[in-house]
Amino acid sequence: MNRNLIFILALVLFAGSAFAVHTTTVLFPSDSNNLTGTVGIKFNITDGNFVAATYDVNVTIAVSTSAGAFTTYLVRDVNANAYCGAAANYADVNCTYTFDTTTVADGNYFVDINAITLLTTIDSNSMTNDWNSTIDSSNSSFSIDNSGPTISSPSPSGFVDPSVTMSVITNESATCRYDSLDVAYASMGAGTTSGLGTSHSWNLTFTAAEGLKTFYIRCINTPGVTSTGTTISFTVRSAGGSGGSFCGDNICDSSESAATCAADCPAVCGDGTCTGTESKNTCPADCGVGVICGDNTCGQGENFNICPSDCEAPIGQKVRETVLSREMKGKPTPDDIARILEAAGASENAVEKARAALSETNVQRNIEVVKETENGKTTFTTIIELVVQNNSWKDLENVTVIEEIPKQVLENANNVKSAVEFTILNSDPIIAFEFGSMNAGDTSSVKYSIDKQVSESDIELFAPAFVSGFAEIQNSLTCSELNCDDYNPCTVDSCENSRCFNVPKQNGESCGTGMVCRSGECVESSSVTVVEPPQDNTLLIIIGGIIIVAVLAYFFYSKK
User: Fold this and answer.
1) Is the dihedral of CA 282, 285, 291, 293 positive or negative?
2) Is it true that 2-146+531-539 and 151-236 share their CATH fold?
3) pTM of the predicted structure, to 2 decimals
């Protein structure tokens, strides 16, 4: 009888192993994030029964307007090793899928992930294939926005007084800048930046009736996408004047003078203002006898250092000037990364790491061509600066940046000069710079030079530089020092090994009067529930049948 009891207990313990923890958790995006460009979808797979020799894990990833709907598939039933690592231990592993958000329309979405564990080695006596399917979705919807703000209602126009308010409206929350030149948003004066919102205005004051004024306005939204430019033009008249009184109308009225409007009023020698055709030669009373730089005469008191437009450089003096300056932004395509790293002899795993790093880092290239003249001899040097930004919320170390120089620009990497040590990956040339550690949000830069004049057409040949890899610096704070509360009543907040975990509660748990948890969100109990795909309960039914047979057998033999 004791042997029978032991046999039954063993069956029960064996059946209990089937209830080991199996979870799939979306880590990012998961909380009302704003996304643009290429990002990394991060998720965790935990399988309490996983054994590498006998199990495979496949994943399906989709984005949907409703959590759990699996509307638009990004990958479908693909081996998870592609995103979790070739030797991933699915007992507990974090994974990343590189998502190009431009492949879907702008809008609000959830990420849906389904992880399936499959038994690959099946015993000849097994009655069914062992498999497990778990699903999770983003805690909250996130927005994808790859379109810049739309600008409308530009004001003012026509004739205005010297004190005027200029304004525009955007269709989404943004900041705006203006400039008298049609340049990129980043090149517009930072002092003109409006507050974040949809209504933007600037109070402008002009000293007199200055005539026609034109300003260019550009805006940028929270994800960092800029708008196309909008132009505002108006004519500044005299304060309180009529529509026809303004500087530039070829009428010198009572409110204007040569000093306030040289375009309308003739110069008057002796009025104390050097205007119009006056000069130190024609009207010293107004213009004086001092130095006037820009009159094409290298006069007394002028030299090349003070006024290079009038005076030539003395023999033997080195003259340095910038003849070309360019700022290059943008990210490489996955094909660019693969082509460059394969040419450098990198592995396929290194290529995947570099692609994953795109969502965490950004590299900007600044190019300056310098001309130096000395003793009649002219030389050119191209100085290239690589500026790296850590866009993630983590501190990074061992940050490596890969730079490919077009062969039309430089034949051999041995001709690269830099005060910072670098590695030649391919003499063709491809080089690598080590940036060490970077705090979250920090930027760091390095410069190198080429003894050659690079042209605009040469610059267009450069592929964007990129970070090929890094390591995350572990948080030094202890769990007692971390606040892991995400203020969501539908998550279980915990801390382990200096890392916060916010795991969604089971669907249907109460989170307040008339409210229940649904996919990690607190919703009204009458809300439509997310229907998950049916689970295969065949294994549980077989185990239950075995237990029932064993109990009946025990009672049958014990009566004998």
Assistant:
1) negative
2) yes
3) 0.38
What digits encode the pLDDT tens for the residues 89-148?
888 999 999 999 999 998 899 999 999 988 665 444 443 445 778 999 888 888 888 888
Q: How far is CA 476 from CA 378, 438, 502, in A?
A: 55, 15, 20
User: Contact, 176 vs 168, CB < 8 A?
Assistant: yes
| In the chain, where the domains are located | 2-146+531-539, 151-236, 272-310, 319-472, 479-524
Q: Give the pLDDT of residue 147.
A: 86
Annotation: CATH topology of 319-472: Immunoglobulin-like (2.60.40)
Q: What is the pLDDT of residue 32?
A: 75
Length of the chain: 560
Cα–Cα separations (whole angstroms), residue 536 to 25, 134, 240, 548: 20, 11, 82, 20
Interval 296-317: pLDDT, tens: 777 766 776 667 767 776 666 7
Helices (H) and strands (E) in the chain, counts: 7, 28
Domain 151-236, architecture per CATH: Sandwich (2.60)
Angstrom CA distances, 497 to 19, 96, 103, 477, stand at 26, 21, 37, 9
CA–CA dist 186, 326 (Å, integer): 13
Backbone φ, ψ for residue 169 (5° rounding):
-125, 140
- Please write the tens of the pLDDT for every residue from 281-292: 677 777 766 556
What are 555's two structure tokens?
């009672």
Type of residue numbered 313: A
**Alpha-carbon distances, residue 273 vs 257, 270, 277, 388 (angstroms):** 10, 8, 11, 51
- Structure-token match 């030669």, residue found: 281
Which residue stretches of 232-386 are H helix?
284-287, 334-343, 348-357
CATH superfamily, domain 2-146+531-539, is Immunoglobulins (2.60.40.10)
Q: What is the 3-state secondary structure (H, E, C) of 86-103?
A: CCCCCCCEEEEEEEEHHH
Q: Crossing angle, helix 538-559 and helix 2-16, to 10 degrees? A: 170
- Distance of alpha carbon 47 from alpha carbon 95, whole angstroms: 14
CB-based contacts of 52: which residues, under 8 Å, 6+ apart?
87, 89
Q: How confident is the model at residue 12 (pLDDT cuts 50, 70, 90)?
A: very low
Q: Which of 158-162, 208-212, 431-435 has the least mean pLDDT?
A: 208-212
Q: Name the E strands within 405-442.
A: 422-426, 430-434
Q: Give the distance, in angstroms, between the CA of residue 43 and the centroid of all CA atoms in the same chain.
A: 19
